[in-house]
Amino acid sequence: MEGFVDVSRILSGSLEGEHVKIRGWLHNKRSSGGIHFLLIRDGTGIIQCTMKKDKADPDEFELVKRLTQESTLELEGIVRRDPRAPDGYEIAVERVKVVHMAEEGFPIAKKYHGPDFLLNNRHLWIRSKKMQTILRIRSKFLEAAREWFRMNEYTEFHAPILITAACEGGSTLFNVKYFDMDAYLTQSWQLYAEAAIASLGKIYTIAPSFRAEKSRTRRHLTEYWHLEVEIPWCDLNCIMKVEEELLTHICHRLAEEMPKELEHFGRSPNDLLKVEPPFERITYDEAVEILRGDGIDFEWGDDLGWIEEKHLTMKYDKPFFITHYPRGVKAFYHKPDPKRPEVTLSVDMMAPEGYGEITGGGQRIDDVNELLERIKEENLDPDDYEWYIDLRRYGSVPHSGFGLGVERTIAWICKLDHIRDAIAFPRLINRVYP
Ligand code: NSS
Fold first, then answer.
1. Does residue 234 sit in helix, strand or coil?
2. For residue 216, what pLDDT is reported?
3. Domain 122-422 in CATH: superfamily?
4. What is the Å distance from ligand 1's center to 359 Cα?
5. d(Cα 322, Cα 281) in Å, to the nearest integer?
6. What is the pLDDT of residue 405?
7. Fold identical between 7-100 and 122-422?
8. Correct CATH for 7-100 of 2.60.120.280, 3.40.1650.10, 3.40.50.720, 2.40.50.140
9. What's the angle, vertex CA 379, arms to CA 377 and CA 341, rounded to 5?
10. DSSP strand pairing (35-41 vs 72-81)
């Protein structure tokens, strides 16, 4: 916009000594003696602005005295380097124009607020330094992912959100009335992606997925962003390589471009630079042995739950893979291991430090009869999957894919203790507002 500069440019140091105009929101204000200290937030950063009584227009100085938190204003002055300013630079204010005097009583005060209060006021809380920083990291995360897909010549493909058959089992489907029919909200793009690889080759998407999760946990949303990949001519090993390369690229980009933001959450950029392929691989069987060795009572064939994943991932400081889960705990499309059909060619990526699963995927069944057998075994209706079964009739290929939970991965990267803070407006079992 003409005449106004971004706060981020000032904080980068390139405008020292210059006369600038900025505009933004009054993030905070304090006055001491004859000086007002204003923190101005403009969407690119927050900068301290000082206004001295003896240098200012008396009316403007009085006006600023009455300024309420979150009022919007335009302001001009000289950029100065000052080690006492929060980010090393400040503006010595010469003129101020108020665009909107906010109402008194901005609900979020400088004191402790409980999580429910902040969730009820999420539309205002996203202005906080914490949420701003997370949302910027999230944006950079997705930018880096797209960059990797572009460098590696993937095509972005969009699958429908309104669907008729479960991908991940019926228990977490959201029902939708679709005129006089029943439909659901998608849990994953996967079944449609398997159709699209015969048209486009290797593909990816970044889209919302929905799960009617009835439990309150720190790692489940009912609406989350799902980064998914599907690749023809790709086996279990191939898909693990893709996952580790993609996550490494994202981690390195964040470490290089957002070190300050990461440190805001106590995440050292070095932790992310340490992420390098190949990630360690352990089998489900080995995971079970580790758990039992540590005195955890666990039956072979059960799914690894939160307690088990937490225990295992506390032992690691980098992401790693768990492969070959039993067929009983994985969805119908997972290919049973030809050498050992009681387990599947499946893989979940685990985030370290107690975070647990961030991706799920593996090699898909490519044989029509094997697929029909698994559909029956899972008590699904083959009629619901007729078009999907067709894909094994007309040009079937070995193929694999995975889905990464964007919020779960960001929660690990930013060391968040609840997944709800990895997204601006979280949807949880008891919350769809605001
Ligand atoms: O159920 S998954 O393990 N796998 C799939 O949906 C496959 N159909 C993906 C694929 O192969 N294309 O979900 C994948 C990931 C999982 O590892 C989590 O990181 C994330 O999706 N996920 C969730 N994140 C947040 N909230 C909830 N409820 C949730 N469920 C899964």
1. coil
2. 87
3. Bira Bifunctional Protein; Domain 2 (3.30.930.10)
4. 6
5. 6
6. 98
7. no
8. 2.40.50.140
9. 15
10. unpaired
Our answer on whether the CB atom of 405 is closer than 6 Å to any ligand 1 atom is yes
In DSSP notation, 107-160 reads S--SS---HHHHHHTHHHHTTSHHHHHHHHHHHHHHHHHHHHHHHTT-EE----
- And the tokens for 277? 């392929």
Low-confidence ranges of the chain (pLDDT < 70): 1
Query: Is the Cβ–Cβ distance between 141 and 162 less than 8 Å?
Result: no
Q: Is 402 in the pocket of ligand 1 (CB under 6 A)?
A: yes
CA dist 332 and 372 (Å) reads 9
Q: What is the pLDDT of residues 355-413, one digit of tens each?
A: 999 999 999 999 999 999 999 999 999 999 999 999 999 999 999 999 999 999 999 99
CA distance 194 to 399: 8
Ligand 1 geometric centre to CA of 331 (Å): 12
What is the amino acid identity at position 267?
R
Ligand 1 center to residue 403 CA distance, Å?
Answer: 6
- The C-alpha atoms of residue 195 and residue 134 are separated, in whole angstroms, by 35
Q: Where are the domains of the chain?
A: 7-100, 122-422
